[in-house]
Design brief:
Number of domains: 1
CATH superfamily: Hotdog Thioesterase
CATH topology: Thiol Ester Dehydrase, Chain A
Shape: globular
CATH class: Alpha Beta
CATH architecture: Roll
Strand order of the largest sheet: 1-4-5-6-3
Structural class: alpha+beta
Helix content: 25-40%
Radius of gyration: 16 Å
Amino acid sequence: MDKIFITERELRFGDCDISGTAYFPSYLDILNGVNEEFWAVMGFPWHHIIWNERWGTPTVHLSCDFSKPSFFGETLKFEVGVVKVGRSSVTVRHRISCGAEIRWSSTQVLAASDLDKHISIAWPDAMREALQARLATPEELGF
C-alpha cells in the first residue's frame, strides 16, 4: 500500500471565474471530494459512516497556500499524506500540482465527531489502524 494517496481532478467551467482561473472556494469543494475518495479507499466511505455508524469527519482547521493559478480544462494531481493521528483528529497534507508545477498546498485537521451528540469521539479502532497505516514520514511526504 502506498502511504501517499494520489488522485486527479479536471478543472471544470463551474470551478473557474470569468477569466478561466480556478476560483478558490471551488478548490475547497474539490478538496472535500478528494478527502471523501481518500476515506473510501481506506474502506470507510462517508455514506456508510455517516448514515449507518453516525459519525463524521468535519474539518476543524484548514490552511492553504496558493502559489500559482490553475485554469479551466487543466488536470490537477492531488496528493494526500497523513502527518499525525491523534485520539480524535488527523492532520493531513495536500499537495496539488499540474504537471511539474505545484499550484497549491494545504494542511487540514479533521476530527471524528458523533453526528447526533455533536461532540468529538475517539477514532473507531479500525479507522485508527487505517490512518496509522498511512502515517508518512517527512521523506515519504516529500512536501
